[in-house]
Amino acid sequence: MSFVMADNGDDDNQYRIKEGDYVVLKRGEIFKAVQIQPRKKVIFEKQWIFLDNAVGQLYSTTFEILSGGNLKPHELKDTASPLDAVEAGTDNRNIVDDGKSQKLTRDDIEALKEKGLKGQDIIKKLVDNHATFGDKTEYSQVKYIKKKKKKYENTVMILKPSCRILAMMYHGREPGKICHLRYDTLAQMLTLANIHAGSKVLVFETCAGLVLGSIMERMGGYGSVIQMYPGGGPVRAGVENFGFPAHFHDTLHEFPICHVNALLAGTLDTSAKDPTAENTHEKQLNLAAEKKQNQPEAEEQGTPEEESMVTNTGDDAGQDVEKTEKDKLKEAKAQVKKLRLEEKQRKLAATAALLKGRNADGLVIASRFHPCPVLLGLLKFLSPSRPFVVYSQYIEPLIECFKKLKECGGTVNLRLTDTWLRHYQVLPDRTHPLLLMSGGGGYLLSGTTVATDHSKPAGSKQAEEPAPKRQKLEDTEG
Amino acid sequence: MSFVEYSDFIQDGDVAIIYLSHNNVMPVKVEQGAQTQTRYGVIRHSTDLIGQRYGSKVTCSKGWFHVLHPTPELWTVALPHRTQILYTTDIAFITMMLELKPGSIVCESGTGSGSLSHAILRTIAPTGHLHTVEFHQQRAEKVAEEFKEHRVDHLVTVRNQDVCKDGFGVTGVADAVFLDIPSPWDAVGHAKVAMKKHGGRLCSFSPCIEQVQKTCEALQDRGFEDISTTEVLLREYDVRTVSLPLPDFGPDPETTEEATPAAPPNHASISLKTTTLPREMPGHTGYLTFATKPRT
Prior knowledge:
Chain A is an alpha/beta fold. Chain A has 16 helices and 15 strands.
């Protein structure tokens, strides 16, 4: 999805759905993130849909799902409401719930659906065939219609993704994937960490990329985001759902935490001849595959480091009497692999350079890992007077973090909090609270870094102070 | 220093935040030669502040504290109140629900003491703009002054007028509108006019449920969709170590061994790291009503 500048003439363009766009399907409170792909079947709320007809339409358009799965923009006809000219009762003293009020059976309704009857019309039929509908109070009738609308209206709205929508979607659909991070908690995180354009933010998350994407949205493509990741590679499938323009990805970096200690100690070697663990493994696999293909070449391949020189060896040694097609293909593959490795090394070195200065502006942690060691390890990369926020599904790990931070010093304004969300139904004479979402949203620990105290012997971080940035603190004290 | 961009060293003219303790935070206008009184003694700007790193510890005659770089969150707890303000919990929720981000154009009324305004500016910088309307002349002037001191004035336009009568002063430009006024239902129409043709998000903050009801009705009448009312409450946990004494049931008759390595608990206790909650949870600030303006 490209962000077209306003002076492009067609102002509407940026509001129109395009092929390849990442969108969010919505019906009521149900959301689903999908990509618009031609002739691709998408399942949403137990229905198969083709999104082809959405291309060219405006975002936030409501579509009807026709039988067959194709979409058609929904026209809001000013049809008579099913409540027109229906009398209403005063209370329910005479209404007996015997389950026999509705004359239409499930099969009847299915038949109507198959006939292609629209949601509005099905509801009208239901009202017409309801024996005691006229006895219900007005409010009860409205409630009944609302309930049936939810069940029978065959529409879907296509939305442009945003942090708000995706956070609500993940929380409703797959909370386990995001460590049960509720959207109001995410909102607090983004603000408490002072996420804004132009800063350098460190992120450690295992929330499918939702937290990362939300941070990127709030940075608008300015500044840099460094994802610290455990294991083989950064997981950020969720970032795609945001549909960011390509240039946003230039601001996103990654760094494996297995190299953090080396980086802090100054012993991280990011030169091309020193592949990271996963690359060695990859190379070994490649070696094995090549050994199978071509026996003579196998003798030349020894250590993984030499693999990158395969093509050179092939040229230099006079053994390549006739370069078969197979050889050329293999060389090309090896060349691609070499370039990819070099690119990876280059990126790693660039990210290491971003981190080395220990001048990051913010730190956000939200993962299934124990937050304490993650926090203590990554705090070192922050400048003084910068915010950090740690999310945990459980409170105990954060209590530990809190205690540790108090012992070590170097932080102020520590707060351990959670938020409660209460929704309301607001209708004339019918206003009252609905849900109360208290527990289950997770907990936050937030604080601000300060310059570490040199006069205190216990917990002094003198050894870790980067030399070129020696604090003036030493001069003012004493 | 600015409220939308970090810097490392304190300079003459900066607004810095003095962090004395958990709930004791004050702003300081840094000035060559100036002095500021605190409960810990005098701060001499020229030596204690200017040239020092943000985050540094400053020692005075009776104690010490840290100097922090301003952020909208610190400003919210430090700013001089001219009106009741919005606090970070509501601000954070509003920011996400209005989908604010760099480049957003936002309309706000009433500006009040500028608590939310600063948070909005931080989020929409460097390419967005805030149009904020305040009907009280002195407050409008004071907040405009602060925006300038905080080096964010290029991102905001303050208008001293009544939003219910004269609107926001702009048409068809806003991605989001925020209302925190006594009669928001009177401003809904103006909000719609100020918003982009393509649509946008609206939020109205009201302490009383009657106001919420009237506002929801007005939003409905004006064709807004997705109308929903929520409130968000913050709970803060106090982390502490407690000691729970263990009971002494007397020597265990079942024990046949002589001296058990673990001495039977006499006045022993278990130490626990736990949290306690304040006796009362800060209750109600206001109801937040959100809505979406469809394409018109």
